[in-house]
Amino acid sequence: MKPLVSILTPTYQSQRHIGGTIRSVQRQTYSNWELIIADDCSTDETRRIVNRAAEEDSRIRLVSLPENRGAARARNAALREASGKYIAYLDADDLWMPDKLEQQVGFMEKRDCAFSCVSYRVISDGGRLLNKTVHMKPCLDYKGFLLHNLIQTVGVMANREAIPAALLEMPDMRRRQDAATWMQILKGGFSCYGIWEPLAYYRRAKGSLSSSKWDSVKGTWRLYRKVERLSLHLSVWCFMRYAMLAVWKRLYWPALPGRSDR
To answer: Which domains, ranges and CATH numbers included, belong to the chain?
Structure first.
C-alpha cells in the first residue's frame, strides 16, 4: 500500500478559489490522500462548496472552527484530524500539478527523508502564469533557511512518523506562522530536501495577508527578533536577505497567455 498523505487546508472567505484548489487535489495521479479543510468561520459560500465536495468524495472532510483565530489554529485543527504518514500543506487559493504528490512521496520514500519542499511557479490572482519560478535548494538546514527563505507552504511535505508532533504544531501567530514552523523543524535537526522540478502553483492573491507589504515587513522582523530571538546584527542581515528575495519574487515578465488551473 502506498502511504496515506494528509493534506491540510485552512480556509476563510475562500469561495473564489477553494473549488479549484480541491480539484487540483482530486486530479492527483497519487490517489491515497485525505483532504482536511479547516474553516475559520467563513461567512461566504466556502463551507457550502466544501460540504458539496465532501459529499461527492469521501476523502474530503470539513472541520469547522468555533471562532476565527487565524491560519495557524486552523492548520493545527486539521493536523489533529490527520491520519496519514505524510502531512502536506495546501492553502485555499494555491494549486498542485497532477503528479505533485506522486513525485514528492516517491522522493521521500526513496531517500528516507522526513522533510521536503517542491519548487513552484507563481500565478496571478486570476490564475495566469507570471513567468516566475522559484526553485528549491537541494538541502537546507536552519541557517540555510535564514539566508535563503525559500521554503514555501504550497510545496512542503513532512513525515509524521519521523518528526515529533510538537514540531509540526504551528505557533499561534497571525503572520509568518508557517515560516516559524519550518524553523522549529529545522532546529529539531531535520533538513529540508528540495525538489528542483516545479510541481505547484503559488497564487499572488490580492488582499491576502502576505500581499500587505508593511504588515509582512513587521511580521518578518518580529519572527527574527521575538520568536527566533536572533541577535540584532543577525536579524538585520537576515532581514536584508529576506527583502532582496521578496523583491526578486515580485519581478515578473509580462504574463503568459492561458490559465494554469485548467
So the answer is: 5-249 (3.90.550.10)
- Residue whose entry in the numeric block shows the C-alpha cell 528575495: 245
Query: Given a cut of 70, is residue 207 above it in pLDDT?
Result: no
Locate cell 472552527: which residue? 65
Under a CB-based contact definition with an 8 Å cutoff, are residues 210 and 125 in contact?
Answer: no
* CB within 8 Å of 85: residues ≥ 6 apart: 3, 4, 5, 159, 160, 161
**Strand bridging mode 95-96 / 192-204:** antiparallel
What is the distance between the alpha carbons of residues 35 and 227, in angstroms, rounded to a whole number? Answer: 30
Mark residue 89 as left, alpha or beta (left: phi above 0; alpha: psi -120 to 50; beta: remaining): beta
Q: Which residues pair with 128 in a beta bridge?
A: 259
The HSE-up count of residue 86 (CA atoms within 13 Å, CB side) is 27
The overall average pLDDT reported for the chain is: 89
Q: What is the pLDDT of residues 12-30, one digit of tens each?
A: 999 999 999 999 999 999 9
Which residue, 241, 213, 230, is CA-closest to 145? 241
- Say how far apart CA 197 and CA 210 lie, in whole Å: 24
Residue given cell 521554503 in the structure block:
151
CB-based burial label for 138 (10 Å; 0-12, 13-18, 19+): exposed
